[in-house]
Specification:
InterPro entries: OxRdtase_Mopterin-bd_dom, OxRdtase_Mopterin-bd_sf
Radius of gyration: 17 Å
Shape: globular
Bound molecules: the ligand Nc1nc2c(c(=O)[nH]1)N[C@H]1C(S)=C(S)[C@@H](COP(=O)(O)O)O[C@H]1N2, molybdenum atom
Organism: Pseudarthrobacter psychrotolerans
Domain Oxidoreductase molybdopterin-binding: 35-179
CATH topology: Sulfite Oxidase, Chain A, domain 2
CATH class: Alpha Beta
Order of helices and strands: EEEEHEEHEEHEEEE
CATH architecture: Alpha-Beta Complex
Strand content: 25-35%
Number of strands: 12
Structural class: mainly beta
Largest sheet: 7 strands, mixed
Region (Disordered): 1-35
Pfam family, one: Oxidored_molyb
Amino acid sequence: MGIISSGFHGKRQADNPALPPGQYETGSFPVLSAGPAPHIPTEDWEFFITTEAGRRHAWSWETFMDLPQVDIPTDIHCVTSWSKLGTSWRGVSLDTLFEDVETRCEYATAHSYGGYTTNVPLPDLLGGRSWVAWEFGGEPLERAHGGPARLLVPHLYFWKSAKWVNGLELTQNDVPGFWESNGYHIHGDPWREERYS
Ligand SMILES: Nc1nc2c(c(=O)[nH]1)N[C@H]1C(S)=C(S)[C@@H](COP(=O)(O)O)O[C@H]1N2
Ligand SMILES: [Mo]
């Protein structure tokens, strides 16, 4: 048959339409971080959006929590080939956060506490496709997974979902972030296997 199935790592299911090409399903939730997990008390947490005009929109944890919260059922896909199907998150849609933001920029760089960055085109962030998520599986997001809050862009490979997210810097050009400068694809669509550059 030519199919090697390992119960430990999960199995490739070529016939599962929820799995992008080259991915296998896992039941666990691996932790992948390029450095130590920063500790951000919610009293100190802030989320910002800066525009090309120099405007800075910012939310404290309190004002962020006052925004409409939504449940987000979604699958997630890591470039290292694991996919986790049927995860549930809660957070604020980027559409909500962008309501008063005026910009002609087409890209954003997500900045995280701790220094991680990743670039995402605005069309991938808007239209109900991304969130700032603070709850996973009905519990506050664990620090290892990006708590108090992380970006969630589940239709792109999971490295785009910046943990410990601090804000978005809008940019005119597509500026490679941390992994994008280290060989990962500039865009990262798992359905097109945009893994490496
Ligand atoms: N701030 C920050 N965000 C990050 C990373 C990181 O190292 N730092 N790693 C990315 C990568 S490569 C992946 S696969 C996912 C892993 O998220 P998880 O640890 O919750 O599984 O987070 C992404 N977001
Ligand atoms: Mo990753």
